[in-house]
Amino acid sequence: MSNTQRRISELPANAASWRQPNVVSQREFEQLQGRATQVGRTMPSDSSLAAAQKLLAAFPSCVSPKETEDQAQARSELLYTYGSSDQRQQVEQQQQQKQIPTGRQREKRSR
Length: 111
Description:
The structure is a single chain. The protein is mostly helical. The protein has 6 helices and no strands. The chain has helices spanning 2-9, 26-42, 46-58, 69-82, 85-98, 104-110. Helix 3 packs across helix 4 and helix 4 runs antiparallel to helix 5 (85-98).
């Protein structure tokens, strides 16, 4: 602390004029804090962003002529979650048809 006091005493008389003004006034700062809080409350959450990503993933691609597995999976999940009971049953049937046998089931089918 004594070192700081020594350095302060060595400053020239016009040293107070070196101080820069605040970037914003206290009132403006409080307004910015309030706005930041308000924006934080209305920002999308991780779950809403994930839902938007899933919705976009379900759309067909204008670049690729074939539907990707990710597109089909996203569309199935959306239909299962938000679709009618008929659509849910259809998704379940499609999922059962796509099941790939593994292990003993695969050996039985190849015989």
